[in-house]
C-alpha cells in the first residue's frame, strides 16, 4: 500500500519569504519512515538543546530550529536511503499573497502527477497538516478536465498568472456528491485529510524535506537537498507568475525509476 503526504514551507503572505514550497511525499511503508524519525527524537532527547527544541515544538520534529546539524544530516541520509518519491512545486511569490484559491491552482499542477501514474486508483487519499487548506477535516478534489493541449490560464487570486503544460483541472467536490461521483466510470477523486502533524511522523519527515527544498531555493543553499538527492527521486515543477513552468529531475540514484511523463 502506498501513502501520500502533503506539506508546505515558506510564508504564505505577500511579505516574508520569496518562495513557497508545496510537496507530496509517497511512501510504500510508513514503518521505515516512522522508525527513522523516532530514532531522531530519541537522539534529541539525549541532548539538553534537543530537549528544549522538542519542548518548544510540542514533541514534533521540524526543519526550522533543528538544533543539531550533524543529526539532521544523518536523518536526511537515512530518509534518502529509502528511495522516496517526492513531487514538489516551488512558487515564486513576487509579492503575491498565496491565498486558498491560488494554492488550489498550484495544487492542481501538483495533482497532475497523480493522474499521470504515480498513484492510479479512482480515489486517492493524501494526508496534510491540519491547517494546510482550511479547517475542514477532509477536502475532496474531482478531476474535471484533462487535455494534452497547452494551457494558459489565470489563477483566481492572481489574474496575471500563467500556467503552461497539459490542461488538468481539479475542482473542489462537495462531500455529499462523492457517492454519485464514485459510481461514474473513469472518475478520479483526490481526498485530502487534515491531521495534526504532531501525531503523524511521516508529516514530520516531510517537514524536513520541505525545509531542505526551501532553503535551497530561498537561500541558494543546497546542502540538505543534495543529501536527499543521492537516493530519493525528487521531481520539481516550477510555477511562476511570469515564465513558463518547467519540470526537471534534480537527482536520482542509479537504481531509482523515473516517474511517467
Lay out the secondary structure.
Blueprint: E1 3-9, E2 19-27, H1 30-44, H2 48-57, H3 69-81, E3 85-92, H4 100-118, E4 123-129, E5 138-150, E6 166-173, H5 178-182, E7 189-195, H6 201-218, H7 223-229, E8 233-240, E9 247-249
Parallel strand pairs: 1-4, 3-8, 4-7
Antiparallel strand pairs: 1-2, 2-3, 5-6, 5-7, 8-9
Helix pairs in contact: 1-3, 1-6, 3-7, 6-7
List keywords for this structure.
27% strand, single chain, alpha/beta, 7 helices, 261 residues, nine-stranded mixed beta sheet
In short:
By secondary structure, the chain is α/β, with parallel strands linked by helices. It has helices at residues 30-44, 48-57, 69-81, 100-118, 178-182, 201-218, 223-229; strands at residues 3-9, 19-27, 85-92, 123-129, 138-150, 166-173, 189-195, 233-240, 247-249.
Describe this structure in words.
The protein is an alpha/beta fold and about 260 residues long. It has one domain (about 5-250). It is built from seven helices and nine strands; from the N terminus they run E-E-H-H-H-E-H-E-E-E-H-E-H-H-E-E. Mean pLDDT is about 75; it is low at about 150-160, about 160-165 and about 240-260.
**Segments where pLDDT lies below 50 for 5+ residues?**
148-159, 161-166, 242-261
Global outline? globular
Distance between the termini: 22 Å
Query: How many distinct helices?
Result: 7
The biggest beta sheet, please?
9 strands, mixed
Proportion of β residues? 25-35%
